[in-house]
Amino acid sequence: MFHIKHYKEYLYQDEPLAQNYAVDKHVYGASIVQQDCCIMNNLSFYNTCATMESVWKAQSGKLGLKVECLLPNDLVNIAKQECESLYPLLRLYCPEKDNDRKYNVDENVIAQAYCDALGLEELGGIVNLKEWRDLAKMLHNFTDAEICSSDVVGDLSLVVEHVMDERTNYTQSKLRLGDINGLLDEFAALNPKERHHQYKSRGNKENITPNAKPNLAEWFRKVIYQEKLSPMEHKWLVRIIIKKPDFGIQSTSILRAVSPYANGLLAADGNLKRMCDKLAGPYFE
Predict the structure, then answer these.
(1) pLDDT tens-digit series, residues 27-76
(2) Which of 38, 58, 229, 233 could bridge across to 21 with cysteines, CB 3.0–4.6 Å?
(3) Cβ contact 265:279 at 8 Å
(4) So where are the chain's domains?
(5) 262 Cβ partners below 8 Å, 6+ apart?
(6) Alpha-carbon distance 166 to 243, whole Å?
(7) Which are the contacts of 130, defined by CB distance < 8 A and separation ≥ 6?
(8) How far is it, in rounded angstroms, from Cα 86 to Cα 18?
(9) First vs last Cα of the chain: how many Å apart?
């Protein structure tokens, strides 16, 4: 049985949300949307992943309780009171709706990047060469039931979680939502098509090769060894990048919990950030 009281605490920091990040409306004015999103950006990425993990694992339970676990009423209300956008959180919960960030990488590219970042296919000075090659084989053949166990086959994020559990001993990163969104922006900028667009928009006349392979392995290496994400965080990171969170709740249900107007606004505009900014303003009290 799914009980929301068991999982609500995952989303929050130790301190009360409004205590350290409250906005003085007498100074800023209640109509100003807080662009720095100080509450949302300071939520723990690990705790957010743990919340998604709990909802994903809950095979039974009412949809309303699962949605409230992801977006507790007090979190939504505090954000509204402080005129703050939920955008930093919703672009992780609903990555398929986030058109501002285009990754344009498939699962095979991600699998290869993890192999390169972890050095699983290096041939020199490796003690457990066979074990490392087996992990690389799993990543490259994550849809093969003869290579991957039945509990992970067909799902790259689960295979990545298994590989990271074998190769690292990190239990929890210190990243907050502002940090992980910044890293994901960096990842999106590695997309050759996106870089081509940025260069053109700046009037850059240099020789541009849109099809050049970006150094994704270096980005994953930083996430693994510098930011020290846990295996569970890597699982959800992969799901965010491929834009398939797959925790059993439609994005329309999540957005409906934010506001009854959310889905209509997004359908009309197609921009998740503008939708969040509008809902954070005074016109949707």
Answers:
(1) 223 333 344 567 899 999 999 999 999 999 987 778 888 999 999 988 88
(2) 38
(3) yes
(4) 4-98+246-284, 107-241
(5) 255, 256, 275, 279
(6) 25
(7) none
(8) 14
(9) 34
